[in-house]
Design a protein that fits this description.
40% of the residues lie in helices and 18% in strands. The protein has ten helices and ten strands. The strands form two sheets. Strands 1-4-5-6-7-8-9-10 form an eight-stranded mixed β-sheet. The mean pLDDT is 96.
């Protein structure tokens, strides 16, 4: 099997077989991200993807889950992506989950009919970076997404029956816009009602545009206490829609994982305890790990 460049997958896909379908990210402009800086977006030749799938069958006697990489795999033409998914299903008949990276704009640009065909072929879930619900934050980090576009993309996914995991970043509004960032993000999540969500504390990646803004003082990082307060606000103000909360990213101050709203009170108790007793709240900046 052939992999080109750095390879990324969500932490909850640690046991999944990775099939590289695209190279890089169609957008690749977010100020906080360096995942695909060294790559130009490209589409692998279908015959090479199929070859990797066949080779993987020889290597692994059982594959229960497959994750398609790199970024924005859903940007592929539907006919091409259908061939990839159909090849996966015919080769790994034991595979019960096929997921991929996508953007809300990718979901928005596909028709519901196209997305339904992908779901019927075997696509179960799209992992999507929302990052923030605050239009000002989205603009500042050059996400290339508006809340209205996010709503349209999520509607298409729901109409087609594709589950969506939305990730977003505590602290992305910085010290000065922490409140607006979490209020607008929570409001948008309540409209989108994702099947799963994955919040993570901001990790500044060396060499990114955001890192340079921090060096010049243009962006002042949110304090660890603000990050905890953002998560507290989120948990207190999310609606009662059912979702799975992957709050256990290694950069998060408090690790919480489980279903909401069932575990809301337990998660809040952990946050309140951290706010009251965790020594990190006395620090000015949260120390995190690069991706």
């Amino acid at each position: 099997m052939q992999y080109q460049g750095k390879v990324y997958r969500p932490w909850m896909e640690a046991n999944s077989l990775l099939i590289q379908t695209t190279l890089g990210c169609t957008h690749n402009k977010c100020t906080f991200c360096d995942m695909f800086r060294e790559k130009r977006f490209g589409i692998r030749k279908l015959e090479n993807i199929i070859k990797d799938i066949d080779e993987a069958r020889q290597l692994f006697p059982y594959v229960g889950s497959i994750f398609l990489i790199d970024g924005n795999v859903l940007a592929l033409k539907t006919a091409t992506l259908l061939k990839v998914i159909e090849k996966v299903k015919s080769t790994f008949d034991e595979c019960s989950k096929i997921s991929l990276y996508a953007g809300l704009n990718d979901l928005r640009r596909k028709s519901v009919q196209e997305l339904t065909e992908l779901r019927q072929a075997g696509l179960n879930m799209a992992y999507v970076g929302l990052e923030s619900g605050d239009p000002e934050v989205l603009k500042h980090v050059k996400k290339g997404l508006t809340p209205d576009q996010a709503i349209a993309g999520m509607k298409n996914a729901k109409d087609a029956g594709i589950d969506v995991l939305l990730s977003f970043i505590f602290g992305l509004g910085g010290k000065e816009r922490s409140k607006e960032h979490i209020v607008e993000t929570t409001n948008l999540l309540n409209l989108l009602e994702p099947e799963e969500m994955a919040p993570m504390a901001l990790a500044v990646q060396p060499g990114t545009e955001l890192a340079k803004e921090i060096e010049t003082g243009e962006f002042i990082q949110a304090t660890p206490l603000q990050i905890l307060e953002e998560e507290k606000y989120l948990l207190e103000n999310l609606g009662d829609f059912k979702t799975f909360y992957w709050g256990d990213h290694s950069n998060n101050i408090v690790s919480s994982r489980g279903r909401l709203p069932d575990n809301r009170q337990a998660f809040l108790e952990k946050i309140d305890n951290a706010i009251a007793t965790h020594p990190v709240t006395r620090q000015h900046v949260l120390t995190t790990h690069a991706w």
